[in-house]
Specification:
2 domains, Fructose-1,6-Bisphosphatase, Chain A, domain 1, 5-stranded mixed β-sheet, 8-stranded mixed β-sheet, binds magnesium ion, binds 2,5-anhydro-1,6-di-O-phosphono-D-mannitol
């Protein structure tokens, strides 16, 4: 055998044992996330059959009526974590308010934020999609339900973050701040096995990923930076980068993490904060990137430094190789100094993100 087989559960346990004060609760919580990921993966693989099953009036394995996969993923995550006893409250892209568990979950040490199925508009076209999670330690006293303040913590205080990508194979990538590790699901045995230990971003940025359909709605700094990536505009790169954009953030991120690249979802004139959500889309990815040697910014400052003010707030997002993201910030500073000024003025007034 070339390499030792290490399951994700064993790996999480091994990492936790480095902390003498660890109680095993975090390991147990990760085990629940892994279980959820495996069930969602099996459902995603059957996505093309839903129509056929629906037409014949079939039900799924739980005997439930066939439902939309994003709703299914949301319900499953919330249900499994709610009754785990390790989580005092949860937040999800699919739920307006916080979700609390039964009374015994009040002793849970952690809160979890989720995007249960990101990029779900791609399902029907068989394009890779993903689930994203972020775990924080609660700040409110144990023994009572989790509160909003447990969630409104900056990304830098995250305990663990990661994603599951449902692609040509299913992979889970996570970090607890000690490197970024990737595990591939072996469907024949139903276990995630360590396949990508200690992922680090390649030193060279090879790819830029952005929905260029919005080019004319971006601010000048972003437009000039994207032109720069293409080897054109006022400050062209000598050798242009390759353009790759799937429109499924987890998949775009995963590819760039392995090959080197910058992913962007800038604000536009119509939507100054862009589309993506700070707490359960941008923060976990930023946490992973910084642990893999990259950097994520909202164009003005590190994503992980932003103090969130609302559960579902949006943020412009630029993430990838450190030098390229710093360069983007520099373009914004030089071409749109008024935006930088208003961002920090708003921030001083207690608003997390400028418009
Ligand atoms: P969703 O949370 O509704 O799935 O939307 C998020 C997705 C991301 O995966 C992706 O990066 C982005 O939307 C693509 O948006 P656009 O089609 O505007 O480029
Ligand atoms: Mg999403």
């Amino acid at each position: 055998m070339k390499q030792e087989l290490i399951s994700i559960q064993r790996y999480v346990g091994m990492e936790a044992r480095k902390f003498p004060q660890a109680t095993g609760e975090f390991t147990a919580l990760m085990t629940e996330i892994v279980l959820t990921a495996k069930v969602i993966s099996s459902q995603v693989n059957k996505a093309g059959l839903i129509e056929i099953l629906g037409k014949t009036g079939e039900t799924n394995i739980q005997g439930e009526e066939v439902r939309k996969l994003d709703e299914y993923a949301n319900d499953l995550f919330l249900h499994i974590l709610k009754y785990s006893g390790h989580v005092c409250a949860m937040a999800s892209e699919e739920a307006e308010e916080l979700v609390q568990g039964p009374h015994y979950s009040n002793s849970g040490k952690y809160v979890v934020l989720l995007d249960p199925l990101d990029g779900s508009s791609n399902i029907d076209a068989n394009v890779s999609i993903g689930s994203i999670f972020a775990i924080y330690k609660r700040v409110s006293p144990a023994g009572q339900p989790g509160e909003l303040r447990d969630f409104l913590q900056p990304g830098k205080d995250m305990i663990a973050g990661g994603y599951i990508i449902y692609g040509s194979s299913t992979m889970m990538v996570y970090s607890t701040g000690q490197g970024v590790h990737g595990f591939t699901l072996d469907p024949s045995v139903g276990t995630f096995l360590l396949s990508h230990p200690n992922i680090t971003l390649p030193s060279k940025c090879n790819i830029y990923s952005v929905n260029e359909g919005y080019f004319h709605r971006w601010h000048e700094g972003v437009r000039h930076f994207v032109d720069h990536c293409k080897g054109s505009g006022p400050e062209p790169l000598e050798k242009p980068l390759s353009a790759r954009y799937i429109g499924s953030m987890v998949a775009d991120f995963h590819r760039n993490l392995l090959y080197g690249g910058i992913f962007m979802y800038p604000g536009t004139i119509n939507a100054p904060l862009g589309k993506l959500r700070l707490m359960y889309e941008a923060n976990p990815m930023a946490f992973l990137l910084e642990n893999a040697g990259g950097y994520a910014s909202n164009g003005y400052e590190p994503i992980l430094e932003v103090n969130p003010s609302e559960l579902h707030e949006r943020t412009p997002l630029f993430m990838g190789n450190r030098d390229e993201v710093l360069q983007l910030e520099d373009f914004v500073k030089r071409y749109n100094p008024e935006l930088v000024e208003s961002y920090f003025a708003n921030k001083d007034n207690g608003k997390a993100i400028a418009t």
